[in-house]
## 1
Amino acid sequence: MAIVDSWTSARAARQVLALARKLLSERGQANSLGLAQDLIGRMGALAAPAWPAVFDKLAADFNPEPDAVLRAAQAYADAPGTETLRALTELSEPPRQELFRRLNRAPGGTGTLVRMRRRLLEGLKAHPDWRMVDADLLHLLSSWFNPGFLEMRQVDWNSPAQLLEQIIHHEAVHAIDGWDDLRRRLLPDRRLFAFFHPQLPNEPLIFVEVALLADMPDAIAPLIAKRSEPLPASSYKTAVFYSISNCEPGLRGVSLGNFLIKRVAEHLKRELPRIRQFCTLSPLPGFAAWLQGLSSLDDLPGLKPAQRERAAQALERLRHHSAAALAGPAALEDEALQADLRQLAAVYLIGQTPLPGGDPVARFHLDNGARLERLNPGGDRSAKGLKQSHGMMVNYLYDLDRIEEHHEAFTQGEIATARAVSGLL
Amino acid sequence: MAIVDSWTSARAARQVLALARKLLSERGQANSLGLAQDLIGRMGALAAPAWPAVFDKLAADFNPEPDAVLRAAQAYADAPGTETLRALTELSEPPRQELFRRLNRAPGGTGTLVRMRRRLLEGLKAHPDWRMVDADLLHLLSSWFNPGFLEMRQVDWNSPAQLLEQIIHHEAVHAIDGWDDLRRRLLPDRRLFAFFHPQLPNEPLIFVEVALLADMPDAIAPLIAKRSEPLPASSYKTAVFYSISNCEPGLRGVSLGNFLIKRVAEHLKRELPRIRQFCTLSPLPGFAAWLQGLSSLDDLPGLKPAQRERAAQALERLRHHSAAALAGPAALEDEALQADLRQLAAVYLIGQTPLPGGDPVARFHLDNGARLERLNPGGDRSAKGLKQSHGMMVNYLYDLDRIEEHHEAFTQGEIATARAVSGLL
Amino acid sequence: MAIVDSWTSARAARQVLALARKLLSERGQANSLGLAQDLIGRMGALAAPAWPAVFDKLAADFNPEPDAVLRAAQAYADAPGTETLRALTELSEPPRQELFRRLNRAPGGTGTLVRMRRRLLEGLKAHPDWRMVDADLLHLLSSWFNPGFLEMRQVDWNSPAQLLEQIIHHEAVHAIDGWDDLRRRLLPDRRLFAFFHPQLPNEPLIFVEVALLADMPDAIAPLIAKRSEPLPASSYKTAVFYSISNCEPGLRGVSLGNFLIKRVAEHLKRELPRIRQFCTLSPLPGFAAWLQGLSSLDDLPGLKPAQRERAAQALERLRHHSAAALAGPAALEDEALQADLRQLAAVYLIGQTPLPGGDPVARFHLDNGARLERLNPGGDRSAKGLKQSHGMMVNYLYDLDRIEEHHEAFTQGEIATARAVSGLL
Amino acid sequence: MAIVDSWTSARAARQVLALARKLLSERGQANSLGLAQDLIGRMGALAAPAWPAVFDKLAADFNPEPDAVLRAAQAYADAPGTETLRALTELSEPPRQELFRRLNRAPGGTGTLVRMRRRLLEGLKAHPDWRMVDADLLHLLSSWFNPGFLEMRQVDWNSPAQLLEQIIHHEAVHAIDGWDDLRRRLLPDRRLFAFFHPQLPNEPLIFVEVALLADMPDAIAPLIAKRSEPLPASSYKTAVFYSISNCEPGLRGVSLGNFLIKRVAEHLKRELPRIRQFCTLSPLPGFAAWLQGLSSLDDLPGLKPAQRERAAQALERLRHHSAAALAGPAALEDEALQADLRQLAAVYLIGQTPLPGGDPVARFHLDNGARLERLNPGGDRSAKGLKQSHGMMVNYLYDLDRIEEHHEAFTQGEIATARAVSGLL
């Protein structure tokens, strides 16, 4: 049985590759479309066990010819010019790229390539050479899913049920507990915006959830409470990005969140001129693990001696609590302990080298040009929040007039930090 | 005055280039969007005299580093692998491409690049080195305007007036003489389909006009008559593509017409299952000039001796008529003369090497997989028709089941030809 | 406190009535709109206790003047003609109608009147004189909600969530148990169609649910099973209307269901030419109560002696079972008992005078021109089904070519009945 | 031949009437729809000569029964109550109304009735008894085309060509000279709004053209100049209704213009908060004819002696000019003459009894609550303008806060008049 399956898989993979080679060798475009449609059909029907063979071949066989490239590079170096350059760029581009472009021309091609990359990424660790294939896919998808081509749509209770169902499914930060919970998140003081691509009109690519509040929030629970009373529009002063979720793993590495946040901020500024500030209420997912693994503060060269001294004292005090105790609800009631946690969270965010250590959420917002605004101990009292970050949450502030400046500074290794945080050190 | 202008132009061009370099050097994506928007604004405001300096620099300065490429090619040749390949592809791609991709990310970027290429093409002959810039633009635009991203829409009398106005303006084959003429071409027995890109939703890229008839037509006049009575739907048996027009010179070389014709054919087949055949009624624009310049038939090696003999006799007979006479309406009444013209049109289409000589319309349809079906002397009695082709028109037949086969044959140097035409030789 | 409330109510009612009189007395139309908008606002804010006073006055004060009408009728009888007729129709129409028409002209007017009638109907039994108001409202709403003005829309999983939520809420026949249940009822082999009015674009007025099946069904459970596998489209042969629900009590008496069913049938016939038959699977809600109250068959003059004899035997046998036993699940397993129930159901439907007794569902479909096609004992095994109809369900067949004939017969007191049912007597 | 036609007509009319009687006698609603559809089909095919017979019968045969009405009126007078009222309203309503309501239920019914009334109105003068039919049609159409059911849409250069074509066709005040002229009237400083009914979604019912200007205009030519430069949005201070046209003669008497103007004014106020005033620039169509027929000012009792004296002097001076001279372009250059005309125009508008004499445009705006704001001699120098009104144009001002007050005053016989006009007397 397994042997039969394996035979079938191998044959299906060979057929896909043969068709791919045929599509790539097609000179004109008259047949390309038909061939691409065939290939898309076969790829859609290809079973999981058949894919590794396809990826292996895509990585091994669809590369530039080393000798030809070398000759072209030599010719270009000898006489840089239109013709030598053309030859060079043609020969040095992996033929895979042209194959993917041709697939993308046919109906359903874009979706097929995105789904193919999803599979590829799942096996990437085990097959390092597939990275060559991935580089080409990422290069092309970044071009095709560039924000100029994306459409931002507000999702609300008037949106199609099939779309809302996907939102429920993909919310990755603060899970949505069914339709009633979603409905609350779509009342007027909550907004949800998503990016769509014209080729995948019914599939949200990424979405962000926004709460319209009077003030910058210090805890997540009220924002996602299912039965809270909606705030009247006259009170909206602060727009809080409290959750951002990617829906499509096949687009990993394609920059979307950054553009979505900024486009939403501009949209809300126009619609609600009273909004004074845009900020986040974000988790600090790596904090607990970092703290756990922290033996000393010596390898944090960014701290000044006095800072290091005080942080070491805080760390010392924390050592008296077991890991379980630190991640338990009782810890939230211990004010001194919370103060120590806050101080070490500041160290975690602005004391590491390179900044901001390994925290992906912090890196995302800071690289976007946000400012590290406030630390909120006890901001997330969920089990997950306690376990990953001892309940700590962070506000990052998006000051639309200064995000370029902050981003610039961040690329120079400097974090824009409000005094409320920097003063903790 | 001219000096002042020239100074202003030069300064504006320098500013554009400086911004372009800044955009390209930006590492993260946070600032890219803002920079790209600035650059798009400046490019939109750049006066005509400033562009050549921009194009010169784009051609001269945004190229791969010859030495770096050579080293990367050597490294790749020594040890082909993920890392050496990544280095090679990065270093051998002209940095212009990344610049254009970043522009394309911002609102309005796509349109700006298309309009920039329009300008570039206008000066290409005079500035051969701009071809390097053009190659990169074409490469990227082909990827962004691939048919998978395009939307086909039917244009009819319910379409927005602003769109219909563009159709009137861009019809290149059989000019539309105002709104009443257009209206006739949108009655139920005439159809018009266009491609649109999501980034340019109000600008048709290319459109094709279709007549629904009982039989394959042999003359254009009845198809574009302003006051003709619409045919009842029950009589539709043949769909005739009688005009195809590109609207956007900045997309020259991006393959659109081929895909449009096929998508329209599929659409009509679904909507009107009674349609039995799809064909064109096409001009033969190079015929008169070719005939004029034809001194002998000796350099047409494709002809067999007997064919050459008969064609030479026909040519000889035509020599008795002046060029003016051949392009005059009286010639249309001379049956013997028309027979000679038809024979030589067959030679023009299937006797040249390489096939089909320099006729762009014939090349377009034959490469698409159409069959050369019939020659129609006197099919176009307009002044332009008489002048360019002595009134000759051609039907190319799109047999949807055989277009791949015909295309394949054409790439091998063979033209699919109906006996009605091949028999003329 | 109650006294204060009562004072407030009385004052609010007086204000509404004063405004109503002002609106009615307005001669031109310039001010009508503003007055109507004011009145709509006040009516929307009127608390429940204030309404009876409004309805009382509407019934008492907005009537034709008896003397004036009598004089006009005399004048018309003396000299029938344009002027006497005009005077008569003007004077005999209750001024309420003009009031309601003026309200209906303003934004939100239609909805306000529909909601007002909803309240009025709730109190109609206790206030018989309100029937005069109701007659005028029904007269006008029938004109404004005539099917020519309604839009039929298919509701599916792509419909707005807010609409689907209303569907879940209003399904009156076979309750929808949440979003997953609804989703199953919107898969391709289930359809849902609703009527909308342009003035109330987000409020479904009535909807019908359809199952696409191979054969006429004899039980409801498989049709509303939450996890059933969708049938492939190639198997659709029968369209079954298995549930029809009104959403708006304020439109009671306005004929909607009849038109909806026919429009849906025509729509499905066009979309799915393979559908051979349209039928219902309907409850028999009054059957159990009728049977319970049936002392003898003597007052069913429609039965012939032999029929009466056999029915009486069946009835006699049923007397041996307690009411609880008849409505219990065990009864479903007793074949003889089910046969007796089926026979008496036939008596219930076609033996009463006038036909079909008091069963509203039967009356609805038979008056629509459907044929009584089949009785299905045990078709509804739910507690409600057992209690109301001993589990009996009915198929009514909509033969589109014969519905007029059947309807005609029904108005003459004759029920179109398939032999499978008439043979039971 | 004529005899044959007449026979055919008579038969077709009889068939229509027979079907109408059948539809009306139908008790249930099951067959109504089918019958109504048949009848609509036949009415659509009915030739012009057949209609008078239909209208004659509709006027003669579909009336209330005099005796029955009289008995019902007596019964109602004896005992006013629910049942006697119901009987009265049923018996006194002409059965025509129910017939028309049933027609209106079927697809296409509304359009059929509107077109039928168009025909009816054309023959109304010659057939006074058709007024009974017209009264019923107007009664129902007023209810169905009430503004609450109408949709206001802005028409612009993005609107469907088929709609724009109708606009060109129906503009009745200042003719639109083809597509280019229309295009100018749709540039940003010109607006066009129309009412549509859901049952006739592609047919504008009435439309108004608006110019956005800095100041109240005193001449029409610049507003409708084909090549004028659009005004920048920052200059818009005044919105001028410069043309209002009904598209559907079958809706004569149904109040639409009043509501359209107010809804447009509210829409513009929201969109362009800088707009300070709304006014018209209107013709004075009856002025020249009135002046021509004016023998003395004695029958204008509204004038005070001094006013009469001065007006008589002006009239005397005008007597020195021939009618042709007064309607010629030279008259426009004679300042003294223009002053006299202005004075008499004021007399024409505010000196007649009842106000404002027979001028339909003045009556329309004044009854809407507008104020008579300014007289503009030489405002319309077109041949038609000179002939009908000696070139005089009028501004009526819509002060949204005071239109109710002005309308109220007008119904009391008083015209709201700016001092600039009243001072002329």
Note: The domain at 2-144 of chain B is CATH 1.20.140.90 (Butyryl-CoA Dehydrogenase, subunit A; domain 3).
## 2
Amino acid sequence: MSAALIAALKTRFDARVSTAAAVREQHGRGEAYHPTKAPDVVVFATSTQEVSEIVRMCAAEGAPIVAFGAGTSLEGHVCALQGGVCIDLSRMNEIVELNVEDLDVTVQAGVTRKQLNAYLRDQGLFFPVDPGADATIGGMAATRASGTNAVRYGTMRENVLSLTVVLADGRIIRTRSRARKSSAGYDLTALFVGAEGTLGIITEVTLRLQGIPENMTSAVCPYPSVEAAIEAVIETIQTGIPVARIEIMDAVTVAAVNAYSKLNLEARPTLFYEFHGSAAGAAEQAQRAQEIAAGHGGEDFRWASDPAERARLWEARHNIHYATLAMRPGAKSWGTDVCVPISKLAEMLRESRKDNEGASFPVTLVGHVGDGNFHHGYIIDPDNAAEMAEAERLNKRLVERAIALGGTCTGEHGVGYGKIKFMRAEHGEAIEVMKTIKRALDPQGLMNPGKVLPD
Amino acid sequence: MSAALIAALKTRFDARVSTAAAVREQHGRGEAYHPTKAPDVVVFATSTQEVSEIVRMCAAEGAPIVAFGAGTSLEGHVCALQGGVCIDLSRMNEIVELNVEDLDVTVQAGVTRKQLNAYLRDQGLFFPVDPGADATIGGMAATRASGTNAVRYGTMRENVLSLTVVLADGRIIRTRSRARKSSAGYDLTALFVGAEGTLGIITEVTLRLQGIPENMTSAVCPYPSVEAAIEAVIETIQTGIPVARIEIMDAVTVAAVNAYSKLNLEARPTLFYEFHGSAAGAAEQAQRAQEIAAGHGGEDFRWASDPAERARLWEARHNIHYATLAMRPGAKSWGTDVCVPISKLAEMLRESRKDNEGASFPVTLVGHVGDGNFHHGYIIDPDNAAEMAEAERLNKRLVERAIALGGTCTGEHGVGYGKIKFMRAEHGEAIEVMKTIKRALDPQGLMNPGKVLPD
């Protein structure tokens, strides 16, 4: 990109513009195995108006634009494949407006989920969407993120009410009112949620909130096999028990968690549960889940509503990434992310675990199985070309099987540039509709180029 | 449109093509007060493939295309403003695939909601979205419909998993897989839901289903004023009671319901409730709602889980349209449809009821108040120009106030051509984004022209 544009940005934004190698490098990098490509320059924006100005300057010069939040993405979303300008939104971290009666809040894109929940706690409210990382709300909206609570509370798709977006030509729009329901025109909110910054930059997000339940009860139950655990999950969901969380780990992963988080779980395939409601309601849910577990060989169903024990359990769950890395010092984790209809989950896991049996590196399993979404972790040495090729091959097989079973290549991580190669197989002709929309809203192709859509 | 196209359609589709005046007339008409404009020809399609063929023939000739389901829309959606071809989808009424374990079903667009629920009952499942009319699932998706259950189960936005859509050039796409969650690309499902046939024609719909709750308990409670009832609603929602339904009626409307449905409700502002759960869970919810009611002057909170009594109550609720028409024989009802954040609901209703006080016709009030959505019914003589002008004026005032309070001109009825005049005020610059998308996906402007978007 042109030196003139960098100079103009420095004139306008002063010390908030950086071309330092370390800063650029950090802004081209997510948390996964993808090769990094640094942007030419990073600008730290502090308002929607500033983002609009930067975008106008880039549009005039034809410079690529990549938005950056916390840098926790997993498919190379922030990698500046064509260089250009990275707009860092992390300083846009204000809570703009909390409406307690309406159970909604508007935040700037750079607010993180933990920051938001710390702010909400005193009001008796919480925001349920919880990817592992402490991602920004803007990044979570852009990737249509979810996490362990989605089975009960939905993903970013269901929990974003409205957005402020800067378009590719710098215009600023509000996608929707704050009303709970509306039939007034096209659903622009949903169009920008999950578009990964390729259609515009999300600068503010209005979210639906939940009251903190009167009671939260957790449970752990080991099963004789992964298949038995999946059968229990299906029956639990189908019976209509409104589980807040229902998560699987296989024996290898439980062992890693025990070692890392100092727990004494049995090293068997295990379900973690959480139930939200009144004290009586949560207990009734746990009771019914326990009965179902027993019918599938899960005899040792242990539940607790003690907050300390509950916190210890879920902290261990959220630290799985680090627990599995500790299995092989110096390694990285390649996290897969398929999601299938839950009736296909047992078949899916049976086949993929067969594929993984001969792998030359450890493979873990965790999953938001109430939604049919799970992650294998390939614990690899990224500098070992043979291991990378093997991981690539296993992941391809996994994704192709998921698509053949009516599922998706990514349940919650997004496409970035890591999953583009599967998009045609998953969507067929619908990809052409996405490309038509992309061309219409970003005719110069400057917004996060090389992401989401194949050429 | 050209006689050649009509002839070609007759050659291809034979007796399933009609140019009879009565058939055409019926296909240009919804259930509201809007002037009717008949299409030039009606074709009864029986498959997605046929819809694609018809669309290709129309595209080649530049003929406008309007999709038609049950004809129950309320904002002139099916009115053939520019003539052209009406594609009647009502014969596409097959249940394509039920997946009990996955709690989803795929249906052709012409299946109605009552037909679907009759089909699902034996499986212990139901589809919760319930507009008053027995609309088609395709029409409900196209207008982003909702109803009394939305406060708990969401609208069509949340309950449509995937669509088959015929595009403006006849191509057929599937918008998404059947997976519960996906972050794989743009949310085309949400784009076509609520687009009212202006971007493409929905021919198949995959829906999320719910298990029929173990227990459903209803309640009725009269309040000293509309304001007191609204305060009770806000507290009920905020406390996190997962009400399945919470509906308001004012005293005038209760009187009309008593007369029409032979009930003996007190003619006061009244809330209808419904609670879903286990027997103990539903009772606990009702108990807590009752306590809240008492705190707002709702002392006479009566609840029942007897199925016959419950059915009688909700049948009366669903027949409100006819009950209010019976207040003034020969009249029509102009149903308003604003939706505001619930913190603004009391103010909104206070002001609008002040406006309505001097009206020269009866005005009713019913509402899905848990979502902030309510309907005034102006019970008018549509042949009386002065009454029409007065209704127009009252509705305009109502909508402008709702938008000023952060709400929307339509919570669930859609835009059609009745609400286009409010779209710029509600959306500002975002309207231009909608128009850009419309031009990109329907460059000839043939799909349901004159609907949703202002010129």
Note: Chain A touches chain B through 94 residues (CB under 8 Å).
